[in-house]
Each structure stands twice: as C-alpha cells, then as structure tokens.
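Data card: per-record layout.
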Amino acid sequence: MTTFHIITLFPESIEGYLHSSIIGRAIKDKKIKISFYNPRDFTKDKWKRVDQKPYGGGPGMVLEALSIVKAAERAIGKKKDVPVILFAQDGAQFTNTLAKTYAKKYEHVVFICGHYEGVDERVKKILKAKKISVGPYILTGGELPAAIMIDAISRQIPGILGKYESLEEGRVGGSVVYTRPEVFVWKGKKYRVPKVLLSGHHANIDAWKAKKRK
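The structure for this 214-residue chain is written out next.
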C-alpha cells in the first residue's frame, strides 16, 4: 500500500476530493492511504502560530522551519527512501513519467504544502526536499498540487483503475469519444457519431482513434 503524507495547514481544502470517486475507492480498498499533518500541532507557540515575518523585509509571511521539519520527521519516522516534495514555481516539472516512477519506486511520499510567501528555505536543505512544479502558474497553496500528484501517481498503481486499459496513455484510444445516443439532437440540429465507430471494423476504428490522439 502506498501512503501519501501531506503536511498542510488546511487539510479540509482537499479532503473532499481525495475521498471521492476513484481515489476515494482506492483508500477504502486499502490500496493507498492519506495521512495529514498540521504544522500547528508541532509548534511550541502557545497561539499555534507557524508563520513569521521574512528576514530582509518584504511583503507577507513565511512558514517557519521548526514546525514543518517536525511534521515531516513524524511522517517519515524510521522509514527509508522517502521522497519529500516541496511545491515551488521554480521546481522540476511534474510529468506522467515522474508519476509512474513514484508509483513503482516508493511506498511513502511526503508533500509539504506551502502558503503565504513560502516556506523557510532551510526546510528544503534539512529534509533534502525536491522542488516540484505542476505548471507555469502560481497557486495560493500547495494543497492542489499535492492532490494532482496523488491522483496521477495513484492511477499508475495496479488495481486502482480496475483495468490496465483504463490508462489513457496505455491504450489505443483518442481524446475524442462518443456514447449513446447515435444521433444527438440539440436545438434542431443533429450531431452524429462518426460512422467508423459504428462499423465494427476494429482495425479501422483503432486507426481512427490513433489519428485523433495526434
């Protein structure tokens, strides 16, 4: 079973997604596990404050190193070979190839979800965290990127999608799909399913699908 450890101030922001649909079923079937760690539970501050003003000035607040490192250490425990992911705009681009690698290689993955102006740089050094970016844009926190990675990695784990053919990248299928009815009428106009898909000629159908993938 693969366990995803998520260090976040706002677990409720992605709990709904992770416990729904295919990912939710994978959790119930004990193929994957999700564990949350709130940095506020690891701070010595009596007000549970984990953000501080940045040295050198600048806008916003920065998440302190102590509570993040302690949360990560709790997640890692005595386990070996546990990758720690820190989401950052300047990180390596997350790809489906990387998702396959994580699915095959690791039983535990730790995600650090930053907020505000980011996480104290010493966290990366101490935990030897790998910076990852899920796209050329900026989000308000790392929770959505964590959910994206968990989804992409999980679907590469045998048994989660039910059939290997369900992996879009591993089947002869196109990005263009149709289902019943054969003729869909909308506002007086008819929209038909391509004849080739109704022909029963599997070679022609596969060729059509392969063409649509390009």
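Known properties of this structure: The chain has a mean pLDDT of 91. DSSP finds eight helices and nine strands in the chain.

See the next section for split statistics.
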